[in-house]
Design goal:
The protein is an all-alpha fold. The chain has 17 helices and two strands.
């Protein structure tokens, strides 16, 4: 559901933008989530907590579980299920990261060596499967078939998105719509589900459930589009992975789609060689940046991220003003301002 307001309507702005208001708001609950995560990733098979702990404790912001905690509070929930479900969301996210790094053959994540680089692909895949299993155990313990269905559907959609991304890798004919289909399947579903379950556990009206789902979905799309830009522009210490990884791996992201469509025949030949065939020289990344800047591909990708951020902001209009709502609005600004 998207809540539409007139173009001349005054938009609500958070009292403080950024992630800090959210961190302050959910600090206590997030500490409880971390306790659940550490307890549930334990296993007598020593490789499992060793490998899972390497990624889970490596500095991630816990953004998706924070959204679950905040959405529950926004809807007036006062129980403890939100802690279990937030941990479940983080387990799903971590499992997908482990599988992603294997598929992408990534060597660095959040500034540290990836699990597959340290322990190998087989261990990474199997520990990812273990975390998925733990996530489903937590869903069952939460005791709601509806919430189980929402999170299970999100996990399935993420897997579909991974396959869609494989199908577009190296394919310079990928359209903008096709690329958006990838991130609407790969990234957006977990953001949407993380927020939606907050309304479900509080037994709020379907209108609020749909609004939080729209907020999460569009926030997730904006978040991924900014990530696409950061892969070409961020400092490695900020991004937590090697700059240009998407380029080196032949990934088709929106900046490449836009630059390819807008380029000359010779520029398209460059993209076909470097991304389509992954035949690259050390100077090619710099040339890619020149072409991306020449055709406004990075700035236009950020503009699209702002568009989806505006939709996420509008989705929250049905909720009354509160510190929780301000914090959720601030997450939108944080997600987009990372690209500046």
């Amino acid at each position: 559901m998207v809540v539409v307001v007139p173009l001349d309507a005054k938009r609500e702005r958070p009292a403080r933008s950024g992630l800090q208001p959210m961190l302050d708001l959910v600090a206590g609950d997030l500490a409880a989530v971390n306790e659940v995560i550490l307890r549930r990733m334990d296993s007598p098979v020593g490789r499992i907590p060793e490998l899972a702990g390497h990624l889970i404790t490596s500095g991630g912001k816990r953004l998706r579980p924070m959204l679950t905690l905040a959405a529950a509070r926004l809807c007036g929930y006062e129980g403890r299920q939100h802690v279990l479900l937030a941990a479940c969301v983080e387990f799903i996210h971590t499992a997908t990261l482990l599988h992603d790094d294997v598929v992408d053959e990534s060597a660095l994540r959040r500034g540290s060596a990836t699990a597959n680089a340290l322990w190998g692909n087989q261990s990474s895949v199997l520990v990812g499967d273990f975390l998925f299993s733990r996530a489903f155990q937590l869903m069952v313990e939460a005791g709601s078939l509806k919430m189980l269905g929402i999170l299970a559907e999100a996990a399935a959609r993420i897997a579909e998105g991974e396959v869609l991304q494989l199908m577009t890798t190296n394919d310079t004919s990928t359209t903008e719509d096709a690329y958006l289909d990838v991130i609407m399947a790969k990234t957006a579903p977990l953001f949407a589900a993380a927020c939606r379950v907050g309304a479900v556990m509080a037994q709020r009206p379907r209108e609020e459930e749909d609004a939080l789902m729209s907020y999460g979905r569009n926030l997730g799309i904006a978040f991924q589009l900014v990530d696409d830009v950061l892969d070409y522009t961020a400092r490695e210490s900020t991004l937590g992975k090697s700059i240009g990884d998407d380029f080196r791996e032949g990934k088709i992201t929106l900046p490449v789609v836009l630059a390819y469509r807008r380029g000359s025949d010779s520029e398209r030949a460059f993209w076909h060689r470097t991304v389509g065939e992954v035949q690259q020289t050390p100077a090619d990344l710099d040339q890619a940046l020149v072409l991306l800047q020449r055709h406004g591909a990075l700035s236009d990708t950020l503009d699209r991220a702002r568009h989806y951020g505006a939709i996420a902001r509008d989705a929250l209009l049905i909720f009354p003003a509160s510190k929780v709502k301000d914090a959720l609005l601030g997450v939108i600004d944080f997600s987009i301002e990372r690209g500046h």
